[in-house]
Amino acid sequence: MKKNTVPEPQADQLVPVDQQLCFALYSASLAMTKMYKPRLDALGLTYPQYLVMLSLWEQDTQTVSQIGERLYLDSGTLSPLLKRLEAAGLIRRERATADERRVQVALTDAGRALKTRALGLPQHALRASGCTLGELTELTARLHALRRRLAESPTETAVQARAA
């Protein structure tokens, strides 16, 4: 049985958009966000806010930099997002007493209570995907490995060095 394979891209030819890994990842991300949207709207959260809340539900009281590193978000993206979560009464931000340059983020009682309402979201995503739990676990692991390899690639390292 022959596997469907994508031909090796030639340097002098464009690869069709539907065969591009970047497009497959991008369009899958859009579909995932669209699937989550009505459920997150009911919680009063955007998808990036949901990710911050997930991180805090796993480990309450983290620094802004810890959250940013965990979610691959820079401070320019994260700061306004945290301000909106604070205005909604779900988190509080405080300067660390040991080092006032660091800002700690902690859940409020309302933020902790919201966790109960969000518990069904992963199961909904599993059902919507049409995959088994094993398939999604494997896909997730492969995507994490891909992200790690891309971040560690010599090209990415060189781009980051030039930007610095």
What's the SSE blueprint?
Blueprint (H helix, E strand, L loop, with lengths): L20 H23 L3 H12 L3 E2 H8 L3 H13 L3 E5 L7 E5 L1 H10 L2 H9 L3 H20 L1 H10 L1
Antiparallel strand pairs: 1-3, 2-3
Descriptive tags:
mainly alpha, single chain, 164 residues, three-stranded antiparallel sheet, Arc Repressor Mutant, subunit A, 64% helix
Walk me through this protein's architecture.
By secondary structure, this protein is mainly α. It has a domain at 17-130: Orthogonal Bundle (Arc Repressor Mutant, subunit A), CATH 1.10.10. Helix content is 64%, strand content 7%. The protein is built from 8 helices and 3 strands; from the N terminus they run H-H-E-H-H-E-E-H-H-H-H. The chain has helices spanning 21-43, 47-58, 64-71, 75-87, 109-118, 121-129, 133-152, 154-163, and strands at residues 62-63, 91-95, 103-107. It has a 3-stranded antiparallel beta sheet with strand order 1-3-2. The longest helix has 23 residues, at 21-43.
